[in-house]
Design a protein that fits this description.
Layout (H helix, E strand, L loop, with lengths): L1 E11 L9 E7 L17 E4 H11 L8 E5 L8 H11 L4 E6 L7 H8 L5 E4 L8 H8 L8 E6 L6 H10 L5 E6 L5 H9 L4 E2 L3 H4 L4
Parallel strand pairs: 2-4, 4-5, 5-6, 6-7, 7-8, 8-9
Antiparallel strand pairs: 1-2, 1-3
Helix pairs in contact: 1-2, 4-5
The structure holds iron/sulfur cluster (SF4).
């Protein structure tokens, strides 16, 4: 099995709960959604096996920091054979904290949830695309008891129905440890207002853009 890879790089996590923490990012290529603002249309830089991915990541680990955070992101990682890849990373780099960021379309799959339950995968960030997917689809996720993870990070698109977040926040809080909204634009005021009115949610700002890092 080979994986299409957009890039592997070492930087700081710029969004959500782990903002500011050093992390190695594995960006897999390809997605099952087409968000208008997305930059993943360019072809993959290279293809490699799970073993080669492990080797490339291990080369990025800073000396004496084998417990570094490794973030598998995309594109959308769950459209690939992610179980093999996550297991290979966990087996070869057992001290690393392995996180996955997904758009949530395949979140309820037993394979993904089993990996998380057994701590082979240590963290799941879910970022549904309110305003890109229909409100009905987003609502079908929110009411599904198998749709769960560590962190829910909703990108705040002006076309999306923010009322869904208000309505389902208390229910989602039972299935996610952290709830974030993240403005798409630099107009943060609607998000600030929303969090003040709905304190179950927190504000996530894309720090990497503010400090101009990858
Ligand atoms: S879900 Fe993420 S990777 Fe997929 S098209 Fe949207 S922004 Fe891009």
């Amino acid at each position: 099995m080979v994986y299409p890879v957009s890039e592997i790089f070492y930087s700081l996590q710029g969004e959500g709960y782990w903002t500011g923490r050093a992390a190695i990012f594995l960006r897999l290529w390809g997605c099952n959604l087409k968000c208008p603002w997305c930059d993943t249309h360019v072809p993959p830089r290279f293809y490699c096996s799970a073993d080669e991915v492990v080797k490339a990541i291990s080369h990025q680990i800073p000396h004496d920091h084998s417990d570094i955070l490794v973030v598998i992101t995309g594109g959308e990682p769950t459209i690939h054979k992610y179980a093999e890849l996550v297991t290979a990373l966990h087996t070869s780099l057992p001290m690393c904290m392995i996180a996955m960021e997904t758009n949530g379309t395949n979140l309820a799959r037993p394979v993904l949830q089993d990996l998380r339950q057994s701590n082979i995968l240590n963290w799941i960030t879910v970022s549904p695309k309110l305003g890109v997917q229909s409100d009905e689809i987003i609502e079908s996720y929110f009411v599904d008891s198998k749709w769960c993870g560590d962190e829910l990070k909703v990108v705040l698109d002006p076309n999306g129905d923010i009322g869904l977040l208000r309505r389902y926040g208390p229910m989602l809080r039972h299935r996610f440890r952290h709830l974030y909204i993240q403005p798409l634009s630099e107009d943060f005021q609607p998000a600030v207002k929303f969090v003040k009115e709905n304190p179950l949610w927190r504000l996530s700002v894309q720090m990497h853009k503010v400090i101009s890092i990858a």
